[in-house]
Structures are given as C-alpha cells and as structure tokens.
Amino acid sequence: MTGQQRRLAANRLAPAEVEHLSMRPLWLCRRCGQPWPCGAAKLALLAEYREVPVSLFLYLAGCLHDAIDDLHRLNPSVTGSAGDMFDRFLGWPARHTHAYRVSTTTAASIEEASS
Ligand SMILES: [Zn+2]
User: Fold this and answer.
1) How many angstroms does the Cα of residue 32 sit away from the middle of ligand 1?
2) For residue 48, what are the contacts with CB-CB under 8 A and spacing of at least 6?
3) Phi then psi for 15, rounded to 5 degrees?
C-alpha cells in the first residue's frame, strides 16, 4: 500500500466532516446522496430538537415549502405527489415524537398537555 492509498483509506475511516445536510435545489443529502432528510439527518434532527419537537415541525414545514418550490422549478413533471412530499418531510417525525399525533390527540388535549 502506498502512502497515497493509506491516506485514502484513512479518510474513509475518519469521522465525517460533511454533515447530512440538504443540497438545494435538488434536496439530496450532501453526504450520502439520498433524498433529504436521509436516515442520518432524521436521527440528527430528532436529537437536535428533542426538547422542542414543535420547532422541528416548523423547521420541516419550511423545508417542505422550499423543496416543493425548488423541485417544481427544476422539473415540474417529477415533483411527485403532495402526499409523498408531506410524508417525506413531516410524516416521519410524527411517528417518532409524542408531541404531534394528529390521529390520536386533539389540538385541545395537546394544549392541555403542554400547559
Ligand atoms: Zn445523508
């Protein structure tokens, strides 16, 4: 193994310097190339917003809005369905947090629980 090869191998094992952030306007992960938010990004977001899950939804709602605009501008024919886009950005945290459960909790009981 040459020095060059060793450096390349070491780089592959080195801690990530590039985080799993969105690359606009494609809305793909800068690191792994998956549609953003990728699995690693979701884990990071859940950890980052653990104490303020409502803020996570507000952030992702803004991302959803921007992504629809960006993707539609790039190619109006492949934006996908509104339901798929909603689930990609806002459906997954609803399954992972206790603060936002449309199907099991009414707005009034959320209000009561948070006061
Ligand atoms: Zn990623």
Assistant:
1) 4
2) 56
3) -60, 150
Q: 22 φ, ψ to 5°?
A: -75, 145
User: Taking the mean position of all CA atoms in its chain, how far away is CA 55?
Assistant: 13
CA distances to 29, 33, 66 from 44, in Å: 13, 16, 20
pLDDT 10s per residue in the chain (115 long)? 555 555 555 445 445 468 999 999 999 999 999 999 999 999 999 999 999 999 999 999 999 999 999 998 888 776 568 888 999 999 998 877 665 554 444 444 444 555 4
Domain ranges of the chain: 3-114
Q: How far apart are the first and last CA of the chain?
A: 63
| Six token digits for residue 92 | 């997954």
What's the CA-to-centroid distance between 2 and ligand 1, angstroms?
30
Q: Is the pTM of this model over 0.70?
A: no
Q: How far is the CA of 22 from the centre of ligand 1 (A)?
A: 8
3-class SS at 35?
strand
